[in-house]
């Protein structure tokens, strides 16, 4: 049984035991056919219309969230349901970060946002107002990058709306901890294995680069994680026999601070390989990836990575951000190529192009929190502490080898923080 369905049935069973009635337990991906429901705001009008007629609260949980329903009911009973409430366990940034668009750069710790894995809740009066607001005032950014921060920013509404109310009973400790007796929720450490790891030979790795990085970034890959790949190729805008690289006939272009090289051509080359999965670029821990891929069926069209969204309030699409690495099953690659997907221009953002293609083809974009588009210190430390990360991205203002050894080398050890406290310019 899938973890989401297992959790849903456990909540219903607890409710029947305590209340002698069944609650409304909804899986967002089954609320409607729209793939963007995971970003909450597109789903909120439907949730409000269906459930706020008979309910007082909408509580959001993750797959890894454990619930003590009796404690949860006691916590919610402390708040009057006629008021607007935004409840959760607060997270705070220690420094400005790119994934939050450097919000509150003067004092990033001043803004709190909920730890989604610990659960969070909206009173129905607040949920109703937000559901109405999204129809005429969407978020300022079209991009959904770090949902828990962006939801809090949208609800806060530059001080016109409620800030997050900290609730100690929304706990981030594991259920086995001795200090969780009063907790309404606890968390499971994110599991990255479902069985025997995928064979090393079943993964083909495509590393996307360009000439300007041949002398600095490519040697870092060779120095760290290249040894863990049974089949790996470097794709570039030139042929360099010393690496070696493969030129696919796609010119490199500068787009902001990123060098873009459309990888659909690499997909075409990959299809001739016998590998079951393909991986595109990043700073990786391939043994952990092999364990994660044991959770997926290679006979299905699978795409996995850190999921972002674009224009999700107006029928947009989800995509896997390329910096954190993109994983495709062989069947997904076959479907992408058969669907005629391709970059419309040489400077097209290839991860977004692939996202549009996956949406058109009906291939789900699967999120894993173990992939990271940014550097470790761009994320809250307590969130990373729950993980054995698979990837990080970007080389600015850090020592990449030290980062690899600290976060991605086995065995992972407790070491001093190795990050340079400098601001990354956009």
UniProtKB/TrEMBL annotation:
<comment type="similarity">
    <text>Belongs to the glycosyltransferase 31 family.</text>
</comment>
<dbReference type="Pfam" id="PF02434">
    <property type="entry name" value="Fringe"/>
</dbReference>
<dbReference type="InterPro" id="IPR003378">
    <property type="entry name" value="Fringe-like_glycosylTrfase"/>
</dbReference>
<dbReference type="GO" id="GO:0012505">
    <property type="term" value="C:endomembrane system"/>
</dbReference>
<keyword id="KW-0735">Signal-anchor</keyword>
<protein>
    <submittedName>
        <fullName>Beta-1,3-glucosyltransferase-like protein</fullName>
    </submittedName>
</protein>
<dbReference type="GO" id="GO:0016757">
    <property type="term" value="F:glycosyltransferase activity"/>
</dbReference>
<keyword id="KW-0328">Glycosyltransferase</keyword>
<keyword id="KW-0808">Transferase</keyword>
<feature type="domain" description="Fringe-like glycosyltransferase">
    <location>
        <begin position="197"/>
        <end position="401"/>
    </location>
</feature>
<keyword id="KW-1133">Transmembrane helix</keyword>
<dbReference type="GO" id="GO:0016020">
    <property type="term" value="C:membrane"/>
</dbReference>
<feature type="domain" description="Fringe-like glycosyltransferase">
    <location>
        <begin position="53"/>
        <end position="131"/>
    </location>
</feature>
<keyword id="KW-0812">Transmembrane</keyword>
<keyword id="KW-0472">Membrane</keyword>
């Amino acid at each position: 049984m899938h973890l989401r369905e297992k959790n849903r049935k456990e909540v219903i069973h607890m409710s029947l035991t305590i209340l002698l009635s069944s609650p409304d337990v909804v899986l967002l991906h089954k609320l409607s056919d729209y793939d963007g429901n995971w970003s909450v705001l597109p789903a909120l009008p439907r949730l409000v219309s269906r459930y706020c007629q008979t309910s007082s609260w909408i509580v959001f949980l993750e797959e890894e969230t454990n619930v003590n329903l009796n404690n949860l009911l006691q916590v919610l009973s402390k708040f009057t349901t006629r008021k607007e409430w935004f409840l959760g366990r607060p997270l705070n940034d220690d420094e400005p970060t790119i994934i939050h668009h450097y919000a509150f750069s003067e004092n990033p710790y001043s803004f709190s946002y909920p730890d989604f894995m610990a659960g969070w809740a909206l009173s129905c009066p607040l949920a109703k107002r937000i559901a109405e607001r999204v129809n005429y005032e969407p978020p300022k950014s079209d991009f959904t990058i770090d949902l828990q921060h962006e939801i809090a920013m949208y609800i806060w509404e530059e001080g016109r709306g409620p800030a997050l109310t900290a609730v100690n009973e929304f706990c981030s400790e594991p259920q086995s901890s001795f200090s969780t007796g009063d907790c309404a929720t606890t968390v499971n450490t994110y599991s990255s294995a479902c069985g025997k790891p995928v064979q090393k030979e079943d993964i083909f790795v495509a590393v996307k680069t360009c000439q300007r990085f041949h002398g600095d970034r490519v040697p870092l890959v060779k120095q760290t994680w290249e040894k863990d790949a049974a089949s790996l190729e470097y794709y570039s805008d030139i042929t360099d026999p010393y690496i070696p690289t493969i030129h696919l006939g796609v010119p490199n272009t500068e787009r902001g601070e990123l060098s873009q090289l459309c990888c659909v051509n690499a997909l075409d080359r990959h299809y001739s390989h016998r590998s079951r999965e393909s991986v595109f670029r990043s700073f990786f821990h391939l043994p952990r990836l092999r364990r994660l891929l044991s959770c997926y069926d290679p006979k299905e069209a699978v795409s996995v990575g850190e999921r972002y969204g674009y224009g999700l309030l107006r029928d947009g699409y989800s995509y896997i951000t390329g910096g954190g690495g993109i994983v495709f099953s062989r069947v997904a690659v076959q479907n992408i190529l058969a669907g005629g997907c391709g970059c419309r221009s040489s400077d097209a953002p290839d991860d977004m192009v692939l996202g549009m293609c996956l949406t058109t083809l009906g291939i789900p974009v699967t999120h894993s929190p173990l992939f990271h588009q940014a550097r470790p210190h761009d994320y809250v430390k307590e969130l990373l502490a729950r993980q054995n990360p698979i990837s990080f991205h970007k080389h600015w203002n850090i020592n990449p080898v030290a980062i690899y050894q600290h976060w991605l080398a086995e065995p992972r050890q407790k070491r001093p923080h190795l990050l340079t406290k400098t601001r990354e310019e956009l």
